[in-house]
């Protein structure tokens, strides 16, 4: 790839951002030899939005746990503040820019001498071809609603919306530098009926280097059914294997440790097993949609919640004395403990609602991403203290914390894109 002036390369990014067919952009990494302050964002994500019928780009800056969002108008007439905002965005000393439109993508890599290489690709039928102007509800699906996969699955409107919402969360979590030059390696632990596994592989296959996915499920009948569905829908690069999460080793089928670990159907403590395996594999991206939280509920009952012998405070008892409130609170407490445990291992964690509760009652998604460079030790230690204090306050022992303590977790460290 030929070297060009950085200003010329960034001009191509600007052109993409202003394009009516712009779909998404990201900027990440720090240029060599450039010193920045602590407030400098580690990553920027840009997407198109319509505000009162006018095209804008929404800029999301991520600095540690802090997220800042602002909107810049890109439809004429563009005001001076918006022009200055776009100039300031492109002037940030990122090492990499990736911008996509419906026609294709441009990738800019800044060299240590301050020049740039530019890669250009035409639009694929998968992730790069999709986009959404979110604020006006004008929907463009990441997976074509007419895809034969939906017919094979017998999926109605609610299921299709859930698939689309999940794929958008997956797209938002994937760093640009993960598996940029080889197939993405994905494992779904406890994949159940595997409709999201199938949809994820169908969509990820549209990446320039493609993807390979392994679904792990204890029930042999579900493994057979999912294998048959994959064949019927023509989903390639996907295999299913029968076994437990604890014994799963997809590295042979995938050709290496997984880049993405999914746990979308695992019930109760199976989610903890899956998250512990993800940490042990040092997976850069982890997405988990917990199903039920009986373990913590049992521990709250064991603590005497709502009884005269309760070891909880009166205020805590008032919160969990009712069985239905205890069940709902256990959901929140369990996922809060899991998020803290993952942060203590160096992950950046968001707990998000990935689809409206009208479509499914289990709509929380744990989205954990290992940053390109390890979080400082004080941040991980603070997360560990948060985990211990939260567990101690409620007299519970979260299984994920125990699993990570037993295995020593995984040392938070950068992982190279090609590993």
TrEMBL record:
Keyword entries, A-Z: Methyltransferase, Transferase
Keyword flag Transferase: yes
GO CC annotation: cytoplasm
InterPro entries per the UniProt record, alphabetical: Methyltranfer_dom, SAM-dependent_MTases_sf
Residue intervals of the Methyltransferase domain: 158-299
Database matches in Gene3D superfamilies: Vaccinia Virus protein VP39 (3.40.50.150)
Signal peptide: none
UniProt-recorded name of the protein: Methyltransferase family protein
Protein's organism: Quadrisphaera granulorum
